Amino acid sequence: MPVTSDLPLRLDPLVWLVGSAAARQAAPHALFMLALLLATALLGRVFCGWVCPLGTAIDAAGPLGRRRPVRPWPGLKLWVLAALLVAAAAGANFAGWFDPLVIASRALYLTFSPEPNWAPALLAWAALLAAVALAALAPRFWCRALCPLGAMLSLAARWASYRRRIGESCTQCGQCETACPTGQLAGDHSAGECLGCRRCQAACPQQSIAFRFSARPLVADSTGPSPVRSLASRRHWLLGLGGLAAGGVAGGWARLGRPSGVLRPPGAPSERYFLARCTGCGACLAVCPTGGLRPELSFARLDAAFTPQFVPRWGPCQPECTACGEACGTGALAHLTAAEKAAARIGVAEIDRSRCLPWARGERCTICLDACPAEHDAIALRQTVPGAFRPFVDQSQCTGCGFCEHGCPLEAAAIRVRRLH
Question: What pTM was computed for the model?
């Protein structure tokens, strides 16, 4: 079973903020994400430069970004962040499509799950590779122009006391700008975008660059606006307003979409609350020992894409297993104890009497009875006519664990677990 950790998503302020806004309730693990924001406010965007797995993958594709044919607008990612928050205000969580930690973890977890589902895994890898391939336009294009988590951290980094300093020996040769993965000019005004990678320091022939703590305030860019910058600014605002409108439309459309009829893992709350919290990171899928959790691919509701659904035909839910709740770092699944998990209801089993062998053909079959866990004892044989015993489900005892559906010998199971609500 793959080893997973919910620590990355606990640290992720974007996942926390969007999930809280969409669910109308503060998400758990606020102290963890505040720790990252405080570290960023002190040290700058060192998380983006040294820790982020997607940023590491983009740096590994360094040859793609040797040329700089375009200069992305750093402020564009702020509009992406704003669009996500507008959609969250409408009740839809789209953070899983744009958050770098979710994008990277999903590709790995879906690939190395006990029963990989290759279509969602390939789509997850396509999203990750698309972010990496943007480096062909400019180094770290994703980080510079599109990453909403980077946008949040860039706002916090504006107050960083540990940042780049330029000495008086600087000759404005431009070597630091060429080496910088975010294309920043020399000067303290770029602290919010600086990744702290120190490539500029290594490239400086005059050794004029140093990174150190200082309480000196940031120096604003005094060059003043130019007609080109003004034009770019107008385009920037138009794109931003379009992004906000798109976020509102997408959020409203998702809320109006039909509710999903799939089964959710144990410990999942109402469907609306679950989708507001879940990012589809895939951690719960990777730890399910039976492979019964599968990623949902819903193009009718993009906020439900990659979220876990329980498919008993792939694997039942073991009464004593609490792995999925322990792996969840967003609060979409409750962290159940073993006793709570044994009583948690996923759904309820129902028998299709038109297809069930004892009911439809009078044949003897007790597989569902034998498969039902003894602690539930939800299926029993009752004599309906002299000499004929048929299975009945006690719905008050059934938790929807799926052992009966998983064990049914028919190609399309005659006993199925359905949602409770």
Answer: 0.86
